[in-house]
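Predict structure. Chain length: 352.
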Amino acid sequence: MAGGDQNRDGFKDPLRMPSYDEDEDEEVDIVNFSRKTPPGGGAESDAASTKALAGSIKVDTDSDAKDLFVTVDNREKHSGNFDVYITYRVTTKTTRSCFDNSEFAVRRRFQDFVWLRQKLTQAHPTHFIPPLPEKTNIRLSRFSTEFLDMRETALNSFLNRIAEHATLSFNESFQIFLTAKAWELETHRRYAKGLVSRVGTSVKTTAESYRLRNRSPEFTTMADYVDQFGQKMASVDRISQRIFKEQIEYQTDIESFAPAFELWSDSETDVSDILHSIATCLEKCADTTKTENVTQMDEFAPVSKEYVLYADAMKNVLKKRDAIQMEYEQCLDELNRKKNEREHVSCLTFYI
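Prediction complete.
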């Protein structure tokens, strides 16, 4: 073992490095960020702490031990009086006694998934709630097949991560989401509307007016780690989007060059074979570039975006944890103030 930041396979933790110069180019920064090894000191203990946190998470891959299976598929497009929307079929199979039946099949809109996440966040403020996919995509239309495929896959992952969670999967709102009829769920959604936003505003106001005094070093380290990770993944996402745009332009240019060389070969008989070979090569390059672009947007881009969303979700959890500690410290301050007032009154009574 070469150290706390490098395992036996030679992988180096990209977050264990000194702070970087914000004026440097993003691409150079990302490369340096992935290559640098930090100096000695507290890095090993920080890495050990991170590994201990990761090691405490156990994933049960035995399907026989699972008692709740959820699938999102079979999307349908609906046209209402004022809008057009997509619904997804949510199929549930379970052996849990808290469910009335063993199988359920309901249809849910994206806003229903948003409601579920809000309810889980409200009920479990210190638990990490998996993020939802983005509502829109600047590159794709909201009703395009590619965008809907990506969203359906992401929503399926979202529900399965909740279903596999030892605490979240037993939440009452999650059970309502999986089993309730459309009108029943709408009733629950209207009842809870606006509550989460009011709570969020209250937390923000408290955070701006109060500063933590006794924050645990463990949470400070975790917050710094997540913050750096979120910044780096956001940079990776922005750079990948820029590369994709340039690759699309490059593909368009190559596709336009190939026919031109093909026509040129017809008029230049002396070098027609050479020009024809160049045109064929350009066509192959265009096909290869197109394949790379599709792979990047189908496999790499969704993963990098999901990492960004996960980092944001973890930041929100840590902020809520800080808000709870703020409330606790304020209660302690108020308790000490009351004690001092009582002692002061007792002293005055003694002298009188």
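Summary: Residues 53 and 246 are 40 Å apart (CA to CA).
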